[in-house]
Design goal:
There is one protein chain. By secondary structure, this protein is α+β, with helices and mostly antiparallel strands. The chain is 50% helix and 12% strand. It contains 22 helices and 19 strands. The strands form five sheets. It has a six-stranded antiparallel sheet, with no helix packed on it. Helix 1 packs parallel to helix 6 (137-149), helix 2 (33-51) runs antiparallel to helix 3 (57-76) and helix 2 (33-51) runs parallel beside helix 5 (105-128). It starts with a helix and ends with a helix. Keywords: Membrane, Transmembrane, Transmembrane helix. The chain crosses the membrane at residues 34-51, 58-79, 107-126, 133-151, 157-174, 181-204, 554-578. Residues 520-553 are annotated as: Disordered.
Length: 682
C-alpha cells in the first residue's frame, strides 16, 4: 500500500507543478480559457508515465505525442492545418501583443505545448530515475517563460511561487521515502516559508524593475488601414449629412475620435500607427494627472471601415474580437469590418489639466511630428503662422493664437472643394478662404509645424443628436481637428474650424474648449509672457510618497534565496544566454560588431551608461582588458562612421575580442560578485 500511494502521489505532484507553472501565464491570459490549455497538458503526461513506467520509453513518448495532438485539436475545436506554424510563431506574436492577450487558440497553443513538454519530461524523469526534485526543473523553466511574457500583465505571480515552493517540498519529502506523517508536518512548514516569500518577494531588487522582453521586440510596421482615409471622407459625408453611422450611450457629450493621422507627404495625411493586438487594455497616455473616466456603449449602424470610435483616450475596450490598438495614439482598430448592430463598450479617460498645467506646457521635441514636405508653400505657411502668433512667446499661447487666426480669417463652407494637398491648402489660404474642417485642421497642423509645434490631425465626430442618454451620430456630425503634443500633458486638442454662422461654434464641446482658450489667452495678455514659478504643485493623481518599509533585513536574507531560486531560475539562466546569442547572430556584419561592443559593455558592468565614449570605456580598465578592448573600440567606431564597408571578418574578430574580455573579466571578478550580478540580471 505504501509503495502504491507513493507511485501515485509522485506523478500527481509533478502534474501539479506543471499545472501551477502553466497557471503562471494568467497575467498573459486572464480568465478560465487558460485552463483548457493547461489542465490536459499537465495531467495527461502524468497518467501516461504512471501507466507505462515498466514499458519502453519510446512507447510513453509516442502516447504523449498523440495525446498532445488530441489536446491541441480540443483547443482549436477541430483540426487546424496551421497548428504547427502557430506553435513556432506564438511566442513572437505574444511579444508584440498588448496584455491581456486574446485567449485565441493560435496563442494558447504555446502554453499548451510548453506545459505538456514540462509535464512529460518531469513525469518520465520521476518514473525512470531516483532523483529527488529534478523532475520539476522543466516546469520551473516554463514558469520562467511565463514571468517574462507576463511582465506587463495585471495581477501577481507571487501566489504561484508559493504554491510551487510547497509542491517542491512535498516532492522532496516523498522521494526521501519519508512516512506520510512527515508530509503532514513538513508541508505546513513549507507553506509558512512560502507565505514569508509572498511578503518579501515584492521587495527584492529584481521585482522593482523586471526585464521586459517586449522592449527588445520588433513592432509591426505602420500599415495603411483603409483604402480611403477618414480625412478624405469628410467632404463626402457632409454632402449626405443625414446618414446614420453609429450611436453612443454615455453620461455626457464628447467628441468621438475615429482616426489619428500624423504623417503628411504633401498630398494627404496618413497614419503612422503601429497597431498591436490586445485583449482589451489600452496603455496609459503621457498625462497622469487629474482626469475623469467616461464609459461609452457604441453601436454600429452604417460607419464604414474598421476604425472604432471612442472618446478621448481609451483605457479598456470589451466586446471586440480581434481588437488592435496603437499604444501611442490610443486609436482602435477591429480585425474585420463591424456589421450593423455590432456593439462594444469603452472606458475612456478624459484629462482634466489645471490652468497652471497648461501655462507651464512645453512642446515635445520630435522631428517626425514637425516635418514639413519640400515645396514653395513652406514659406507661405511659416509667414502666416508667424504673423498670426506675433508677440506670443509661449507655446500654448502660439497654439491658441493660431487657432483664433484661422477661425476669424476664413469661413466654414460644406460646398468648398475637398482635398488637403499643399497646393489645395495654398489655394484655401490665398484665394477662397473657405473650407470644411478638413482644410482648417490640416492647415492648422502644418502652420503649427513651421513654429516647431509637433502636430497631427484627428478625424472624428461631434457628440450627435441626444435622445434619452443616447447620442445618434450621423455623417453630418463628422469633424476634423488638430492636436499638439506637450511634454507631460500629452496631446491637446485645438479647434480651428469656425461654426457655420461665423467665428462662434454651434457644438457645445468645441464651444467650451474655445471659451477656455480665450480665457487663458486673456490671462496671458494680462500677466505677460513670464510663467509663474512659485505656484503650488498640482495633484498628479498619485498620493504622497510613503516612506519605505517592510520586513527586517534578517527576514529578507532568510527568504530571498529561496524565492529567487524558484521564481527566477529560468530567467537567470536563459536571459544572458539569449541576449548574447541575439547580438552575436544579428543580421549584417555591422550589427554584429555593435552587438559585440554592447555585450562587452554589459560584461564590464557598464549597462545603462550610454554617455560614455569608447575612449572613456578603454581608459577605465586595466591592461589585460584594455589590450583587447582598444581594438574592439576601434572596430566599433569604424562601424558607426562607415557601416557599409564592414566585413564579416571584422564581425568575427570583434566577437573574438569580446570572448577574450569576457574571460579576463571572469578571472578578475570574485565568484560571489558574479553570482550576485547574475541573480540581479545585471
Amino acid at each position: 500500500m505504501s509503495v502504491l500511494w507513493r507511485r501515485l502521489a509522485g506523478p500527481a505532484i509533478v502534474a501539479g507543478v506543471a499545472g501551477v507553472a502553466g497557471w503562471g501565464f494568467h497575467r498573459v491570459f486572464p480568465g478560465t480559457e487558460l485552463l483548457v490549455a493547461v489542465v490536459p497538458a499537465a495531467v495527461a503526461p502524468a497518467v501516461v508515465a504512471a501507466l507505462t513506467w515498466r514499458r519502453p520509453l519510446w512507447l510513453a513518448l509516442a502516447l504523449d505525442l498523440v495525446l498532445w495532438f488530441a489536446g491541441a485539436v480540443l483547443l482549436y475545436r477541430g483540426f487546424e492545418p496551421a497548428l504547427f506554424a502557430d506553435v513556432a510563431n506564438a511566442w513572437q506574436a505574444l511579444l508584440t501583443t498588448l496584455l491581456p492577450a486574446r485567449p485565441e487558440p493560435e496563442l494558447l497553443i504555446l502554453v499548451h505545448t510548453l506545459v505538456w513538454a514540462a509535464a512529460t519530461i518531469g513525469a518520465e524523469t520521476l518514473a525512470r530515475t531516483r532523483t529527488r526534485i529534478a523532475a520539476t526543473v522543466p516546469a520551473l523553466l516554463v514558469f520562467g517563460v511565463a514571468l517574462l511574457l507576463g511582465v506587463d500583465g495585471a495581477g501577481s505571480n507571487l501566489p504561484v511561487v508559493g504554491a510551487l515552493f510547497v509542491l517542491l517540498a512535498a516532492l522532496a519529502l516523498l522521494r526521501d521515502d519519508r512516512p506520510p506523517l512527515w508530509l503532514l508536518a513538513g508541508l505546513p512548514a513549507a507553506a509558512a516559508l512560502a507565505a514569508l516569500a509572498l511578503v518579501a518577494g515584492p521587495l527584492l531588487p529584481i521585482a522593482a524593475q523586471p526585464y521586459n522582453p517586449r522592449d527588445d521586440a520588433d513592432l509591426p510596421p505602420p500599415v495603411r488601414v483603409d483604402s480611403v482615409s477618414p480625412l478624405d471622407r469628410v467632404s463626402a459625408w457632409l454632402q449626405i449629412p443625414d446618414r446614420e453611422l453609429f450611436a453612443v450611450k454615455a453620461g455626457k457629450p464628447l467628441n468621438w475620435r475615429l482616426a489619428v493621422l500624423d504623417r503628411y507627404d504633401g498630398v494627404r495625411w496618413t497614419s503612422g500607427a503601429r497597431f498591436q493586438p490586445t485583449g482589451g487594455r489600452v496603455p496609459e497616455g503621457e498625462w497622469t494627472g487629474a482626469g475623469e473616466v467616461v464609459r461609452q456603449w457604441v453601436t454600429f449602424d452604417g460607419l464604414p471601415g474598421t476604425w472604432l470610435p471612442a472618446a478621448e483616450r481609451p483605457q479598456e475596450v470589451t466586446g471586440v474580437r480581434g481588437l488592435a490598438v496603437d499604444p501611442d495614439s490610443g486609436a482602435l482598430l477591429a480585425a474585420d469590418k463591424p456589421a450593423k448592430g455590432f456593439r462594444y463598450e469603452v472606458a475612456s479617460r478624459v484629462a482634466k489639466p489645471t490652468k497652471q498645467d497648461l501655462l507651464d506646457a512645453d512642446p515635445v521635441r520630435d522631428p517626425a511630428l514637425t516635418a514639413f514636405p519640400e515645396g514653395p508653400q513652406l514659406q507661405l505657411f511659416r509667414r502666416l503662422a508667424q504673423q498670426a502668433t506675433k508677440g506670443a512667446d509661449a507655446p500654448i499661447k502660439q497654439a491658441y493664437r493660431l487657432q483664433n487666426y484661422l477661425r476669424t480669417n476664413a469661413s466654414y463652407d460644406v460646398t468648398a472643394p475637398p482635398g488637403h494637398s499643399l497646393k489645395g491648402l495654398e489655394f484655401f489660404l490665398r484665394t477662397t478662404h473657405r473650407g470644411t474642417s478638413e482644410q482648417f485642421a490640416a492647415t492648422f497642423a502644418l502652420m503649427a509645424r513651421t513654429l516647431g509645434l509637433p502636430s497631427r490631425v484627428v478625424v472624428g465626430f461631434r457628440p450627435g443628436e441626444a435622445s434619452g442618454g443616447v447620442y445618434h451620430v450621423k455623417s453630418g456630425h463628422v469633424m476634423a481637428w488638430a492636436e499638439i503634443k506637450f511634454d507631460g500633458l500629452g496631446w491637446r486638442p485645438f479647434y480651428p474650424t469656425p461654426g457655420r454662422s461665423g467665428a462662434k461654434d454651434d457644438h457645445e464641446v468645441v464651444s467650451s474648449a474655445i471659451e477656455e482658450s480665450e480665457k487663458l489667452e486673456g490671462e496671458f495678455a494680462q500677466g505677460g509672457s513670464d510663467r509663474p514659478k512659485d505656484s503650488q504643485p498640482q495633484p498628479s493623481g498619485k498620493g504622497p510618497e510613503e516612506p519605505a518599509g517592510g520586513p527586517s533585513p534578517w527576514l529578507l536574507a532568510a527568504v530571498a534565496g529561496g524565492v529567487a531560486l524558484v521564481a527566477y531560475a529560468g530567467v537567470v539562466v536563459a536571459l544572458p544566454w539569449w541576449r548574447r546569442r541575439r547580438r552575436r547572430s544579428a543580421q549584417g556584419a555591422g550589427q554584429r560588431v555593435l552587438g559585440a561592443w554592447h555585450q562587452t559593455c554589459d560584461d564590464l558592468g557598464l549597462k545603462g551608461e550610454n554617455a560614455l565614449t569608447a575612449a572613456d570605456v578603454v581608459s577605465r580598465h586595466p591592461g589585460d582588458i584594455s589590450a583587447h578592448l582598444q581594438p574592439l573600440a576601434e572596430i566599433s567606431n569604424f562601424v558607426r562612421y562607415a557601416p557599409e564597408t564592414v566585413t564579416e571578418a571584422a564581425a568575427t574578430t570583434a566577437w573574438q575580442y569580446n570572448d577574450a574580455i569576457r574571460r579576463a573579466v571572469r578571472a578578475r571578478t570574485p565568484f560571489t560578485t558574479r553570482l550576485r550580478n547574475r541573480l540581479l540580471l545585471r
